[in-house]
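Quick review question:
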């Protein structure tokens, strides 16, 4: 389903980034980092509008010719960015939400690990397996 999944720290540096195919990895890094401006705009707009603060899903950040970029932010301001192939028209908004919830739950499991230092890059086999399962559904 997804071609790139990234976890970005509160200070906007990547904690985890995974993309397929790997030959376009630099392009996906650029796409993820350019989407952070849109994430910041949406977060500040939510604060002004006094919307329900429990809504973590930001929705479609922006579409490109080949991809659609979706965003999600946690209560601790950690950002999840997912890049999906535009040709996948069967993917609905509620499926994207459930993918982000699954990603957030897995991230929470990492945070609960007493051997993980918050702010370090994520090196977890369980997290890799979960991300790979979300990416393999498209292949």
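Suggested answer, residue by residue:
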């Amino acid at each position: 389903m997804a071609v790139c999944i990234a976890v970005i720290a509160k200070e906007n540096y990547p904690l985890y980034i995974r993309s397929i195919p790997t030959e376009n990895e630099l392009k996906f890094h650029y796409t993820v980092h350019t989407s952070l401006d849109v994430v910041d705009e949406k977060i500040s707009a939510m604060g002004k509008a006094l919307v329900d603060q429990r809504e973590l899903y930001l929705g479609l950040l922006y579409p490109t010719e080949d991809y659609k970029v979706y965003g999600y932010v946690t209560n601790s301001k950690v950002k999840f960015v997912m890049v999906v192939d535009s040709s996948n028209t069967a993917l609905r908004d509620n499926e994207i939400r459930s993918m982000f919830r699954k990603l957030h739950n897995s991230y929470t499991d990492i945070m609960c690990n007493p051997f993980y230092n918050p702010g370090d890059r994520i090196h977890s086999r369980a997290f890799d397996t979960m991300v790979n399962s979300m990416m393999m559904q498209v292949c």
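Why it works: The helical segments are 25-49, 93-111, 125-136. The CA atoms of residues 4 and 105 lie 18 Å apart.
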